[in-house]
Design a protein that fits this description.
The chain is mainly α and 533 residues long. Among the domains are: 243 residues, no CATH class; 31 residues, no CATH class. Helices cover 46% and strands 7% of the residues. The strands form four sheets. Strands 1-2 form a two-stranded antiparallel sheet. Strands 3-4 form a two-stranded antiparallel sheet. Strands 5-6 form a two-stranded antiparallel sheet. α1 crosses α4, α2 runs antiparallel to α3 and α4 runs antiparallel to α8. The chain is globular, with a radius of gyration of 27 Å. 29% of the residues are buried.
Length: 533
């Protein structure tokens, strides 16, 4: 969904929240705990004091101007030179108002916005993005510049790109997990980003309870108004961002050996011929690498202090869907009233050239997002191959996997180091491991590489049945119908699935960068459209 006239205020807050530019200047020296539910916010009350309302009008107009300048700095690439002194001064004034009038809704809204942008020059957050952006030019993981998400791309992206950008960001952090600083940056994101997100969410949730709320301001010689129609989708975006950040910070990615990453350099410098006569240091480095796949390893587990929030992500996303749909329904209801009700709205709902979006389109979006709910609610069957076949998936089960993914690796046995990479027949080399069955009996001969190629060429993935065996082929219940007899049949069929999204815009090389949903979209179409899956 695109809102062509979305205000600088909402847009800036969402763009910056996606980057983690949140919170106050001071270092937070306490570990993050979920505070959004415990933040006490007074119920909204209308202002009857004309002097206070006049003060708020001036503050709101000033805030809009300041944030407009911030957007310009982002677009011009001069973010590092932006002086946020005036934003901090505005925050103090709003705080002073809330101290005297804790139920003042406009001040609450402004505080939620400022909570998201006051860290615009935070060096720790910038260091985090510098860390993952360093992989851009030379790293083997990235072959397509369009797929690589940089700091600038997040800041300059549109609101409708947020889900896809956040998923890309999560993937990049995973790619960068070999860097020792990532663990430290997880703490920075937790302590600064999530604490401020909780503040903004708490205030916005409170405002959503008040149907008559309207935040009015002057910007670029025009009067604008933000109400529940805009706040609902904005609040949903913040909850999505929070869910993604929780995933990023909760996974244990520490692969250091006694606090050092030197073991990786040691392994990278081992030549094939060295495996027959390894030094003690080389053996220790290999032992550590192999230990990461052990069931006792903490690598990829969810940190114990985060498991409650990690498993609560489906509920958080459910709540975000509620907010999103409530905001759209508010816009539909406004469309039934006199046009004057929407005169200053950021986007206007109605039929005809004077409106930005029709009520029917908003209802269509509500219906589409309604279909996402079932994926967060338990087991669901997804039809494919035009209907006759389906695959069961249970997404909430994924968030109950907290002990790492080592338990789901296929049965295998690591060979002695001296056998690694020995030259075999026909130009093949011995793999470091062999696949086995549940009893530890090898399922391939010595030349695994050759056998795999021949099996897949002759039979496809289904030829791997009985050759690669999983201790839990359902992967913790995420795919409840999988078993060791049918898993490769499913995987081969799924690989052939194509969505029916309609391309709206292509670049000069024929790459489609803008899609729309077809009529009567399938569940897979909807998932692909909203999350680029």
């Amino acid at each position: 969904m695109k809102f062509p006239k979305i205000s600088m205020v909402i847009l800036t807050a969402l763009l910056l929240s996606a980057c983690g530019l949140f919170s106050d200047d001071d270092k937070v020296d306490v570990r993050y705990t979920d505070t959004s539910a415990s933040i006490k916010v007074d119920a909204c009350k209308e202002t009857s004091d004309p002097k206070l309302q006049s003060q708020l009008d001036d503050l709101n107009n000033n805030l809009a101007q300041q944030m407009g300048e911030l957007v310009v700095a982002i677009l011009e690439g001069s973010l590092g030179d932006f002086d946020n002194t005036s934003l901090k001064a505005s925050l103090k004034e709003y705080d002073d108002i809330l101290a005297k009038h804790p139920g003042q809704c406009e001040a609450q809204f402004s505080k939620s916005m400022l909570a998201l942008v006051s860290m615009v020059n935070d060096n720790d957050i910038k260091d985090f993005f510098d860390l993952i952006s360093d992989l851009d030019d030379d790293d083997e993981y990235y072959y397509d510049d369009d797929d690589f998400l940089t700091y600038a791309k997040i800041l300059n992206g549109g609101l409708e790109q947020s889900p896809d950008n956040l998923v890309k960001l999560a993937r990049q952090v995973q790619k960068a997990e070999a860097e020792p600083q990532v663990g430290e940056m997880q703490d920075v994101l937790a302590e600064k980003v999530l604490l401020s997100l909780d503040t903004a969410i708490a205030y916005m949730q409170n405002i959503m309870k008040f149907d008559d709320f309207a935040f009015e301001f002057e910007f670029d010689d025009h009067r604008h108004q933000i109400d529940k129609g805009e706040i609902g989708p904005a609040l949903a975006a913040l909850k999505l961002i929070k869910a993604i950040v929780i995933v990023i910070v909760s996974v244990d990615v520490d692969i250091s050996q006694d606090g050092s990453m030197a073991w990786m350099d040691t392994i990278n410098n081992i030549m094939d011929e060295d495996f027959s006569n390894l030094s003690s240091g080389q053996k220790q480095a290999l032992d550590h690498a192999v230990s990461l796949t052990d069931k006792k390893s903490l690598f990829t587990t969810i940190k114990k202090s985060w498991r409650g929030q990690y498993s609560g992500i489906p509920d958080l996303l459910f709540s975000g869907l509620d907010d999103f749909q409530e905001g759209l329904r508010y816009g539909i209801e406004e469309s039934k009233m006199d046009f004057s009700v929407q005169k200053y709205d950021i986007y206007k709902v109605g039929n005809g050239p004077d409106y930005d979006v029709s009520p029917a389109k908003l209802q269509e979006i509500i219906d589409e997002t309604d279909r996402l709910r079932k994926y967060l609610d338990g087991k669901v069957n997804i039809n494919y191959q035009a209907g006759p076949k389906s695959i069961a998936i249970n997404i909430p089960k994924f968030f109950q996997i907290t002990d790492g993914f080592q338990d789901f690796l296929p049965y295998h046995k690591v060979l002695p180091y001296e056998d690694w990479f020995k030259e075999l027949d026909e130009g093949y080399y011995q793999e470091p491991f062999i696949f086995t069955d549940a009893k530890g009996k090898a399922t391939f001969g010595d030349n695994i590489g050759k056998e795999l190629e021949e099996l897949i060429e002759a039979k496809g993935l289904v030829g791997l049945k009985g050759k690669i065996v999983f201790p839990d082929p359902t992967f913790g219940g995420v795919f409840p119908d999988f078993n060791n007899d049918n898993i490769f049949t499913y995987l081969e069929e799924i690989a052939e699935i194509e969505t029916k999204l309609i391309c709206e815009e292509e670049d000069d090389w024929g790459y489609c960068y803008s899609y729309k949903l077809p009529k009567n979209p399938s569940d897979l179409d909807v998932l692909s459209y909203y999350f680029n899956w």
